[in-house]
Amino acid sequence: MKAVVVTSKGRTELQDFPVPEASSGHVVVKVRHPSTTAIALNPTDWKHRDFVAPPGSWLGCDFCGTVESVGDGVSHLQKGDRVAAFVHGGQWPGEGSFAEYIKVQASLVWKVSETIGDEEAAAAGGIGPWTAIQALFFRLPIDTPWNPNKEGEPFLVWGGATSVGLYAIQLLKLSGYTVVTTASEKNAELLKSLGATAVYSYSDKDTPAKIAKDYPTLRYALDTIAEGKTTVGAVKSIWDAAGMGKVITLLVNKDDELKQYKDKVPAEMTLVYTVLGVAFDWPGVSFPEMPEDKRQMEEWCAKHIPELVASGKLKPNPIKSFDGGLANITEGLDYIKAGKNRAQKVTYKI
């Protein structure tokens, strides 16, 4: 089999490896022709390639494929099942979705229905929707799609056109919230079609004040960008509205301006890899095993994600398909690095 390997900072190479074996509690998923085959790319992939991944580590997170082999103790999956998920690519040798076969924890894949295609399933496979699920339902005391909010409470998604933002808007709408978001004007109609009630310009310095005026009971926000002043914007929206609440971010933001709000509107980072239940190091931070994160995500994989996707209630991101397979993965990574992938998901058939 072939896999994409980080050889040095910013550089990758397609190399040959033995096909992995399914150990206890794991399955091996085939992600190459003539199986159902696709991978999806995320900003974290090029960031790992350029800054984080040690030489020799495999790259890639999201995938859709068919179960090739099943390890001991796995009873809910069998060879030929069509599944999707994500792995922590860019961290270790032997784990990455930019490969023809992928070894993955059996409890952290979800069965894909025939109602969606391979690339759509890979787009919904893991990083984007799982980050939204973790940030919203694991980190905040909010209602769920099966027990929705009865008051239509407002919720702010700063950066609605990101991959995570697109999923967060849908999940919040399903959970009964009035979804407020920021984006460029060209993406406003797409976000409204997914469930956003109001879309504000992310580049307007007065946007926090406008949001607070229009939604004075706003208490919670998700910042899907977490760069520059985005976290400050989300925090100020709540501060000027309800005066207290919480913001979840996807990166650490050390902006000094946040200090004046932290007692009433703290900004807390979350990182989706903790749902995999494995300790790992991140630049400047060591993350321990988080068994409760894993337990909750296992429940979502078994009960909720398959139904939400199959029913069309949770729609995959719009697809931007690239040709050339694993040998051309650099083109897609650089496309995302250049910031060209707003409101779309880069995918490849392998």
From TrEMBL:
Please give the Pfam families that the UniProt record associates with this protein. Answer: ADH_N, ADH_zinc_N
**Which SMART domains does the entry link to?**
PKS_ER
> What's the protein here called?
Enoyl reductase (ER) domain-containing protein
| UniProt GO MF annotations | oxidoreductase activity, acting on NAD(P)H
- Origin, by domain of life? Eukaryota
Q: Where's the Enoyl reductase (ER) domain?
A: 10-347
Q: Which InterPro entries match?
A: ADH-like_C, ADH-like_N, ER, GroES-like_sf, NAD(P)-bd_dom_sf, Trans-enoyl_RdTase-like
